Amino acid sequence: MSYAYLFKYIIIGDTGVGKSCLLLQFTDKRFQPVHDLTIGVEFGARMITIDGKQIKLQIWDTAGQEAFRSITRSYYRGAAGALLVYDITRRETFNHLTTWLEDARQHSNSNMVIMLIGNKSDLDSRREVRREEGEAFAREHGLVFMETSAKTAANVEEAFINTAKEIYEKIQEGVFDINNEANGIKIGPQHSPTSPGGLAGNGGQGGAQGGGCC
Amino acid sequence: MFRSRSWFGGGLWKPKNPHSLEHLKYLYNVLSKNHTVSENNRGLLVETLRSIAEILIWGDQNDSSVFDFFLEKNMLSFFLRIMKQKCGSYVCVQLLQTLNILFENIRNETSLYYLLSNNHVNSIIVHKFDFSDEEVMAYYISFLKTLSLKLNAHTIHFFYNEVNEHTNDFPLYTEAIKFFKHSEGMVRIAVRTLTLNVYRVEDASMLGFIRDRTAAPYFSNLVWFIGNHIIELDTCVRNDADHQSQNRLSDLVAEHLDHLHYLNDILCLDIPDLNKVLTEHLLHKLLVPLYVYSLMKQKNVLCQNQDEKKHVSVVVALFLLSQVFLILSHGPLVRTLAAIILKSDLDIIRDGASKVLEEYAEISSNKAIAFAPPKESLEKSLENLSESQADLKESCEGQSQNDELPVNTLTKKQRERGMNEPGTSFDTTILDAPPENLSNPDQLEITIPNETVEEMKHLNVTDEEKEQRLALESPLAPQQLPNDPIQESLTNKPFLQTILNSLYCNENDYTALFGLCLLYALASNKSVNAEMLDLVLSPSQQVPTKNWYNETLVDRLIHIITLSCQTNAKVRLVTLELTIKLLTRLVMSEGRSLLHDTHLASIEAAKEQSTALLRNFYKSEDIFLDMFEDEYSEIQKRPLNVEWLMMDSNILLPPTGTPMTGIEFSKRLPCGEVERARRAIRVFFLIRRLSLTLNMEVETQLPLTNPATCIEVNNVLDLSKSYLLSSCLTGFIWGAKERRATRIYDGKYNSDLIACTVVWKDGQKIRRFLVIDVLQLILVEPDTKKLGWGVAKLVGFLQDIEVAGDKDDSRCLHLTIHKPLSSSASNRVPLLSAKFIFDDHIRCMAAKQRLTKGRIKARQKKMSQIARLLDIPTSMPHCSTPPNYAFMSMRPERATGRGHKKDQPRPMFTVNKVPGFAAQLRQDGVVRSSSGSTTPNGRRSDGSPNGRARENGLRSRDNSPKMPRPRSEEIPMEDMRLRKASLAANGSGLPSIVCSDRKDSTVSGTSSNGELALAIKKRSEETSFTSPQVQDLKPRRKGQVETV
Q1: Alpha-carbon dihedral angle through residues B758, B762, B764, B765, given to the nearest 10 degrees
Q2: Region labeled Disordered — which residues (chain A) (predicted)?
């Protein structure tokens, strides 16, 4: 599967806010949450289209690795976008946002696009954080804000795609140094003017959906 | 035919409920009928795999029979079978993701054990996927990482097969570490995560396997990988004189930091055997040969035998070593490294480099100190592991000779040694050792950490040499003290010499900054024991050397300080700040300065010089005052953080003067007159502060505005002591005209109070009193209940105002209050920008005059303060008139907080010279007594806590609940959107005075729904300003009130 760009995302936020569910919901729609089953996953990739260009999103959940400073540090640095997630039914997850954001700003490259996500919007009756509070926090810190539900899939698509759009715009503006892979952006194999090979992804494109490579 | 049937579920009907055992049975059928993956059934298989994951997770939570069936039919083997068909990434990815989902979501321990029980998972781990496909790679490594997060003392046995001594394997770990230097960053991070997750499982047998079989190959490869990275970094620095590849360099630096943090994370897990191996590798193959040896000027000494030996530039070496000491905290490693840097002399190194190799074969625990590629690639080393027993044994022997440390024997040996000589164990004994032990030469030798002793052994030191070295360094004999031991031996200690020599700023301070950083990092690393630093850095803890400090080093530091005070100095601000930071650390002991008079005199001379330098810029720029105050707040707000400094790759490039590089001001040389002035200001502040610290004095003249004497928003003011230039007020000061008139001539009024209407840009209008103080402009809202009192609603400094008349309306003024100039904030949004409408033309003109003059006076006052600081004789008379404490008297609580100001020069007096104004001054004492008398009961006692809070430097608003201010409920507390932020905080305080219910509502109103609440309040405020006040006053004032 060829793509124009590959964007690497990370998902951050307290445990139990539904990060891995958001990830699975976005990358594999097969797990439609019609049933009362919460399923999540720590990694996923999906192709989207922006401005007529194929863009591959790779999303890495950093859960469970907070114990090691080196790991969080590296993750932040290697990502072009971050979804900062809190749970609208648990106030403390909202209160911890500042700490997460500080961490992110300290370690990430300054161009990283951060989107604030208030998850579990389906549980409106148990809501502890009002929508306006999330909006205000986002405004104050210059983030894009959205309330989502990994369960009903509301806004999940939009959250990931809007973040990608913003990264894409930054690329068009020339803010991102796209030749520097450490920024979490990679140019697709055939789009790269300079590097004919050597990248990990060049070998096995054939196995993709349509193509036959058995 | 078979194929076409398979599309329809292989003949078996598909159950309606997707979450049921029946459905799993159906899926089993699908799988068993589609053994071969083909173009046609691929989609079906992927769908089936997904469904299986879903049912299993459902089963895990709801129905255990699902798992029984899955196990009974050995369904994981289907996974394997599909995998082995080289079915392309589409199916592979789904397989891996299904496994990910399974392991990620299973909560039931038993279910997890079922899944892991038949070793299928290990077979999947070792399966050779097509890792050239980045998608497969990513899913595969995520799968391994997910598994590693499931590791614990129980599950470890499913992954680590401990059958017998030689056939044990641990594919999860060994397969993963093969990707430790994968080109994809996220893969490398996942590998590191996995290794850390493995190490922290407390299983002795598994850790034994890791240490004996994999540690040496993995760590030696890792160290080689890091080293090559360093060489790339060095090349990048060398080839980039014109700051072209800042991005690349910053990546390389960040990557090195990642490595160090990773190593530190491993070391912090505190697994003794593992740490031992890792420390060995780091010291022998990276830190000493590549980092420390690069400090050596005469490289030929080291390169006698290996001419291709690699090294990096001194700058890079100092930079990297600083990072090492700032990040790593593992005692044995850090102490050894520090000892090598600070203590090893030329003879040891010269002999060592040549002789270590000769002795190499004999002492199996020793390794060459060399940055050299590992004997074989990690893959190969790991392959050897899985080979037959004989091969394995052989390779092990080979390794133990080359790479591997026979840890068991060594630790045993050490334990024995430790038992026999209690002093040798380096962890605790040294620190616990009583001081008298240290005066014993034999014991002193022991204070060198164990590994240093080892290190020295490698370097082939004879006993004589050791004694000699100790004699040179030892602080034992008091008679040695007068001689500077460092001086004597410095020439013989190449590494230390390089560091100290780097402090000379001949052409620039390029290397000096890194030398300072390294010394600072060494001094602040908690694991480096004090004894080692004794003679080099810190003041000694021992009695004979208690008041000793390293004069050579201090000489050089003071030299940097002196240099930086010169015009066109090549010392950057950051270097100066770090020098001062280090110097303070070296010579301040228990709050006392150890500095000799000569050194102290040099510092004072430098202070004079910096003052002289700044004098040249005094008034030379219009914005001098603004810069002066801004620089002061910058220095207070952002003290130097060495760890952050060492994360900035920009400092690795030669110092530059141009701001075009985007390098922040303190890390480059000044460019242009303005920046030179800024620099001079900062140098002045830094050295002044140093001088005060050394003399144990407290700063009394800075900042120019003492925040304790300023009015803040929501302060309550006694307006009755101000002259009212307002017809509006007469409304509620009943019959006061006469009285006021007399008072004016009594000399009891001393600030101007002018009524006006403030019209904001968005059309909002609010009635306020404009008060012009010595330094500040205050918008006051009068209190309705308590006559003559008001609350400050907006405060700005007169020095920052801009006044302009209105050509269409002679009663109008356009007033802008700027925020204080700040170099960090690019856009200056004014604090206030509004139109002020006065009652008539006369008052408007008066206000304009007062404001304009106020601005000039406020600035003059501060400029003369600066002049005093710089010893510039001023034409302005000092204290020719008593200070204007007008506003202090309005706020009795201030009186207590003012004590410490007595020593200060009195603020300049500003008299009201505007015609039509009458304002008088009083002596301090009068103010106090009169304020006491005019203050209503109860106010006095409130004052002190507030005053104290302010003294503490807390920007405390008057939100103390102890301050009962009877207030009208009609007048809301909040307005002035410009101060929204502070109001949100304040809102909680003042309303509480009225009643607690109100407080709650106000708080939530301002914090969450600020704008709306404010708008409503503003509206009500306007109406409330006149009428409710009047009504309120009526009962008290006998109905004499009339609106004007």
Answers
A1: 20
A2: 190-214
Does B44 contact A at CB distance below 8 Å? no
**Is the CB of B556 inside 8 Å of chain A's CB atoms?**
no
Residues of A in contact with B104 (CB under 8 A): 20, 40-42
Q: Which chain B residues touch A30 with a CB distance below 8 Å?
A: 47, 50
Average pLDDT of span A3-28: 90
> Two tokens at B455?
């290190």
Element (H, E) at B838: strand B832-838
Give residue B218's pLDDT. 92
Query: Chain A neighbours among B 257-296 (CB < 8 Å)?
Result: 257-258, 261-262, 264-265
DSSP string, A166-209: HHHHHHHHT-S-TT-GGGSEEE-TTT-SS--S-SGGGS--TTSS
What span, in angstroms and rounded, lies between the C-alpha atoms of A65 and B957? 42
H/E segment holding residue B516: helix B510-524
Q: What is the ipTM of this complex?
A: 0.88
User: Per-residue pLDDT tens for B979-1031?
Assistant: 343 433 443 433 333 334 444 443 443 344 444 444 444 444 443 333 444 34
Mutate to test the interface with A, among B184, B268, B1011 (most CBs of A within 10 A): B184
Cβ <8 Å between A203 and B61: no
Q: Across residues B596-609, what is the average pLDDT?
A: 89
At B414 the three-state DSSP class reads: helix
Angle of CA points B251, B256, B258, to nearest 5°: 95
Res A56: pLDDT: 93
H helix or E strand, kind and range, residue B254: helix B246-268
Contacts of residue B57 in chain A, CB cutoff 8 Å?
A: 37, 39
- Cα separation, B282 vs B277, whole angstroms: 9
Q: Does B137 touch chain A (CB under 8 A)?
A: yes
- Whole-number pLDDT of residue B919: 36
β-sheet bridge partners, residue A145: A116
Task: Report the pLDDT value the prediction gives residue B177, as an integer from 0 to 100.
Answer: 92
Whether A135 shows a pLDDT value over 90: the answer reads: yes
